[in-house]
Amino acid sequence: MGDLLDRGAAFLDAQRHQHLSRPVLYRRGTDEKEVQATIGKTEFEQADDAGLIHRVESRDFLVRTEDLELGAGPILPRAGDQVRETVGTAVFVYEVNAPGGQPPFRHSDPYRRVFRIHTKHIATE
Fold first, then answer.
1. b or e along 21-47 (b: 16 or more beta carbons within 10 Å of the residue's beta carbon)?
2. Cα separation of 110 and 113, whole Å?
3. Among residues 111, 110, 108, 101, which one has the least CA distance to residue 21?
4. What is the mean pLDDT of the chain?
């Protein structure tokens, strides 16, 4: 019968991908690829030297791991890569990044089908 949870997660991912995603452009240097992404957010908390807690919100892009391929096989997101999201006539540019030494991505599911890529807005064109 196989792993029922794995099959259920695959079904839900297919539904998310089909009905809750939009095209974005993933860029590393001069290499780029259009991928389907679901928009999300993550709130990070950081304490400064004085002990004050600062909250930082990341715009997240949920992308299938198999889709993040720039010509030489699948890649892992890394700090400095860019995600470009077009809304109407504006292009919002986000840099892959996470505050406080956190990794710039994590797997969004236990089966490692989807990356949750953390970004920050750096420009609007």
1. beebbbbbeeeeeebbbbeeeeeeeee
2. 8
3. 108
4. 93
- Collapsing DSSP to helix, strand or coil, 17 comes out as helix
Amino acid at 92: F
Rounded to 5 degrees, φ, ψ at 12 are -65, -40
Angle at 45 between CA 42 and CA 48, to 5 degrees: 150
Phi, psi of 84 (to 5 degrees): -115, 120
In this prediction, the residues of the chain whose per-residue pLDDT falls under 70 are 1
Rg over CA atoms, the chain: 16
Q: How far, in whole angstroms, is CA 28 from its chain's centroid?
A: 14
C-beta of residue 54 within 8 angstroms of C-beta of residue 101:
no
Residue extents of the structural domains in the chain: 4-124
Here the tokens at position 81 are 């890569």
Q: What is the pLDDT of residue 32?
A: 94
Strand 105-107 vs strand 90-96: parallel, antiparallel, or unpaired? unpaired
Tokens of 42: 């993550």
